[in-house]
Structures are given as C-alpha cells and as structure tokens.
Amino acid sequence: MAAQIPNEAPKELNAADASQNPGAAAKAKTTPAGDDHDDDSDDEADGAAANGTGAPADAKKKKKRKPRKKKKNPTSQTDPPRVLISQLFPNKTYPKGEEVEYKDENNYRTTNEEKRHLDNLNSDFLTDFREAAEVHRQVRQWAKKTIKPGQTLTDIANGIEDSVRALTGHQGLTDGDAQIAGMGFPTGLSINHCAAHYTPNAGNKMVLQQEDVMKVDFGVHVNGRIVDSAFTMAFESKYDNLLLAVKEATNAGIREAGIDARVGEIGGVIQETMESFEVEIDGTTYPVKSIRNLTGHNILPYSIHGTKAVPIVKSNDQTKMEEGDVFAIETFGSTGNGYVRDDMETSHYAKRGDSQHTDLRLSSAKSLLNVINKNFGTLPFCRRYLDRLGEDKYLLGLNNLVNNGIVEAYPPLCDKKGSYTAQFEHTILIRPTVKEVISRGEDY
Question: Residue 425 catalytic?
Fold first, then answer.
C-alpha cells in the first residue's frame, strides 16, 4: 500500500508567549492555515494609529513560504522489499535476462530483419516477463540473505510472498486482483528428501535446521506471464557438491535449449552432467542421480504446466522446442533412489484449464469454486491463500473439487527418507532472435 505524503508538522506555540498574549493561543486554534492577510493588516493599522502617520511603525516582513519538496521516486529497494518495481523502473525499462544467440542453422536469426520485427511486436509480452523476473530476482536475493536456521517455514514463506505482492502492487485480497499480478506459484520450501511441492499449511510449526537442505521454489506473474525459478539453500559445506551438480545440470539444459531442440536429447545432456558428480556426506560417498520422474515444462499464460515436458534423463521424446515457447528448465538431483512418490500433506492446488462443467451437489464446493475462479483462475494456489481470503472449513469442498476433476492437487514429491535432494530452475523465452534466460541474475 502506498504511503501518504506526510503533512508538515504545525508550529508549536511557545508557552511563555501564550501566557503573555492569551489571544494568540486562541488565534492559533481558529485561524485557518495559510490565512496571513488579516493578521498583517491588523498589525499595520495598530502601528499607524500609534504614530499618526497612516504608515505602519514597524512594517512586518512577510516570511516567504518555502515550497514543499516533491517526494522523489525511490531509487533502491528496501529491506524487506516493499518498493514497487514500477517505481524503480518508471519507464518500464526492466532489465533484460541473459540473452544467448542461437547457434548453427539458427544463427541467422540474431540479425534477421523479419525476426527482429517479430520480436518488436512482442513488446508487451517481454515487458510483463521482465517485470516478473525482476520481482523474482529482488525477492529471492533478499530471501537468500535473510533465511537462517531457526526460522519457521511459515515465516519464510510469508516473507517471500508478502514481498512479491508488495513489489507487484497487488495484495490479492479483492476479487481478480491476484490475477493481475502477484504470486504465479506458491512458495515451495521442500526439505531434505522432499524434492518439490511442499509449503506449510495453517498451524505448521516446522523450523529450518542447520543440517537441512531446502529447495526454495516460487513463481511471479504479471498479466499471466509466469516466471518460475528455484534454488537450493544449505548451511553446511558437505552438501556443496550436491548443489553444484544440480546447478551445472540446469545450466547444461539451458545451453542445449533452443528452436528445434529435441527435449529427449536435452534430458540426456542434463543427466550426463548431473551424474558426473558425487558427494560425500558424513563419511559416505553418494552418486548424484537425476530424479527420473520429474521434468521441466513449458509455461502458458496463466498456466504453470503447459503441454510439453523437458525430461532430466535421456529419453526418446522427439518433441521440439519452437519459436515463441516459454520453458522452465528445472533439474533435481538426489542421493537416494532418484525417484519420487507422493507423500505428506497436500498444500498445492490449481484449477484445471481443461475441466468440464460439473453439477456440484456440495454447496461448500460450489462456494469454494466461485472463490477460486474470482481470485486465482487457473493460477496455482495453496491452502494458506484460502485462509488469507477468510475462507474456513473448506477442506471438504476442496476435496470434492479434486475428486470431480475440476481442481488438480499437487502433493509433495519425496525420495526415500534419509536422502537429500536439490533443485535449480530458470525460465527461458525462445524468442525469434535470441534465447533469453529471463530469470537469470547475479546469484545464479
């Protein structure tokens, strides 16, 4: 919420002056601010009567009122982040991501006039994505500085989400506001053997520990253009090689991505990079495995998971990346089985874009669907978001929507207990002229 420009503080009346001239105190209360004319004319008349000349004995010099200083637009972000990104970039000239020229037979696209013209036609598309990406960068860089062992996962998640909403300028508390801009994907805080889709529900008291490996995965959207990016935090150096393996695998996937690239071949490069690493933890050496049943994905407007997947192991999938596609290249490494299953309490949900009309018999399901349609549409949400909107006793209705195929549930995905998993993710735009790693920052 924008802060009001503070009014100038009223001048205090000196107590001694007031006792000598009681009328002054009364006048200070009753005379409108800025109305100096009557006071001056009275003083002048008194002076003229005293010397009989018709001119004031001591003409008062009127004080020139200093013009109020205009409040300047902020030039830097606060801690925690609360300054609108649009105020930091008033002309909407948001930073570009990392632009990578196409290679081989697509190299001509970098300078081709027709392709450059197509790129220029997408100015709104690029502006929305770049704004969302800058919000993500600033929030995650703040989060990396402030997240420490001893914090609850609820406090961490709320800190990230409050910052995203503040920077986009959309709190998401009125109908439709969260669909203009804000959270594009709930803040995942998946610990150790849990690889993805865990965020605390109401009443969760889990505390981040010194020995934990935590995946921080959240999305930001502007007008439905979703930037999905993730990183892993660990506080012990023994996990360094695990994190490095996954970061290198993600970067390898990004390098291979581009127009006409086949997703199965990209998966092979990711797997080869990932599994060239091993990590020693507490005296035991583990090979780092690609989690074979997790993938990257393309992103569509208001839909985090599109129709194409990017495997992180070698496959025969011949699907090609195409001009105009938006992909989340995300990779997951594990010291366990390299395979995840649904586990723990579900928190993530999203309305299915392909859901058919269903006559719902449960009144709580009908009511909740109306709330979801108005506030999220097909954007993913979590149970904390429903709590925040004042919804209560909604679980029966929510489960009914899931059972009827209207809402998709995304349970936490976990490898075997005792293992450690890591994740890194970036969003890339397959533009006509270049590949843009839109979420790239100085941090990763």
Answer: yes
**Which of 128, 228, 325, 391 is labelled catalytic?**
228
Q: Answer yes or no: is pLDDT of 367 > 70.
A: yes
Q: Which amino acid, 150?
A: G
* pLDDT surpassing 50 at residue 433: yes
Residue 414 burial (10 A CB sphere; 0-12, 13-18, 19+):
buried
Active-site position among 217, 325, 391, 415:
217
Catalytic residue among 136, 221, 305, 348: 305
C-alpha 71/C-alpha 136 separation (Å) is 27
Q: What is the DSSP letter of 205?
A: -
The CA–CA distances, whole Å, from 317 to 251, 261, 294, 334 equal: 20, 11, 14, 23
Q: Is 8 a catalytic residue?
A: no
Return the number of other C-beta atoms located less than 10 Å from residue 14's C-beta.
10
pTM: 0.84
Query: Is 282 assigned a catalytic role?
Result: no
Active site residue 330: yes
Q: Which domains does the chain have, with CATH numbers?
A: 125-341+416-444 (3.90.230.10), 347-410 (1.10.10.10)
Distance separating alpha carbons of residues 189 and 311, to the nearest angstrom: 22
Asked whether residue 355 carries a pLDDT value surpassing 50, the answer given is yes
Q: Which of 189, 47, 61, 136 is nearest to 438 (CA)?
A: 136
For the cut 90, the answer to whether the pLDDT of residue 35 exceeds it is no
pLDDT band at 6 (very low <50, low <70, confident <90, very high): very low
State pLDDT tens for residues 209-249. 999 999 999 999 999 999 999 999 999 999 999 999 999 99
- Of 256, 425, 426, 436, which residue is the catalytic one? 425
Report whether 228 belongs to an annotated binding site.
yes
